[in-house]
């Protein structure tokens, strides 16, 4: 599978940081509890990492990004592409989705541009640190858009797995994802009428 590296300009990163802060502050001020399972990053950093992933996919697909600031999240999808709903997930290696939460038409996996992923993907970029994020694997400014999968195929291929004592998730190895180059044809053939 060919992963696609996506970089960000300083202004993009600043805008994403501001949106992450606004989303986090709104939830904290309203007393909305965090659902995070990563203990190494703050809620604001997690919002930021997720927004970087969403922005990367939006750039690749040349679509707008949802910048709404709501208490209850995005309703199960982050973007629209050719009439299909797209949920963007960011993970160090593989696709992990809470049970029953794959509600979009497709999910796209974005990985941080860490050394291990860089080496695995055979890329030659020199990563540039993003000092806003504390967790080493996510400290790179750039990300890799790894691939996508539709809901029906995910339902056939995923299996349940637990990590470090956390609740089980629906799991699929990144190698099972389809390349981004196939998404345009899929979207044309599966767009709602």
Commentary on this structure:
The chain is an alpha+beta fold. The protein has one domain (4-190). The two termini are 31 Å apart. It is globular and about 40 Å long. The strands form two sheets. Strands 1-6-5-3-2 form a five-stranded mixed β-sheet. Strands 4-8-7 form a three-stranded antiparallel β-sheet, with no helix packed on it. Strand 7 and strand 8 (169-172) form a beta hairpin. Residues 115-126 have low confidence and may be disordered. It is built from five helices and eight strands; from the N terminus they run E-H-H-E-E-E-E-H-E-H-E-E-H. Helix 1 (10-30) crosses helix 2. Helix content is 32%, strand content 20%.
Strand order within the widest beta sheet: 1-6-5-3-2
Share in β-strands: 15-25%
Instruction: Provide mean pLDDT, rounded.
Output: 81
Query: Which parts are unreliable, with pLDDT below 50 for 5 consecutive residues or more?
Result: 115-126
**From N to C, what is the helix and strand string?**
EHHEEEEHEHEEH
User: What structural class results from the helix and strand content?
Assistant: alpha+beta
Overall radius of gyration: 16 Å
In whole angstroms, the N-to-C terminal distance is 31 Å
Largest sheet descriptor:
5 strands, mixed
From the spread of the alpha carbons, the general shape counts as: globular
The tally of beta strands, per DSSP, is: 8
Number of domains: 1
* Contiguous helical run count: 5
Helix content: 25-40%
């Amino acid at each position: 599978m060919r992963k696609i590296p996506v970089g960000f300009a300083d202004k993009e990163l600043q805008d994403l940081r501001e949106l992450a802060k606004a989303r986090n502050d709104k939830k904290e001020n309203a007393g909305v509890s965090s659902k995070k399972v990563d203990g190494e990053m703050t809620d604001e950093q997690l919002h930021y990492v997720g927004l970087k992933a969403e922005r990367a996919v939006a750039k690749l697909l040349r679509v707008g990004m949802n910048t709404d600031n709501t208490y209850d999240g995005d309703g199960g999808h982050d973007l629209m592409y050719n009439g299909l709903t797209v949920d963007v997930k960011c993970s160090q290696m593989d696709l992990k989705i809470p049970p029953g939460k794959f509600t979009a038409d497709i999910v796209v996996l974005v990985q941080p541009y860490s050394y291990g992923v860089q080496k695995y993907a055979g890329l030659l970029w020199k990563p540039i640190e993003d000092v806003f994020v504390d967790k080493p694997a996510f400290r790179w400014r750039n990300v890799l858009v790894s691939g996508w999968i539709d809901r029906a195929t995910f339902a056939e291929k995923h299996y349940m797995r637990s990590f470090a004592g956390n609740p089980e998730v629906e799991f699929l190895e990144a190698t099972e994802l389809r390349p981004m180059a196939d998404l345009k044809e899929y979207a044309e053939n599966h767009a709602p009428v």
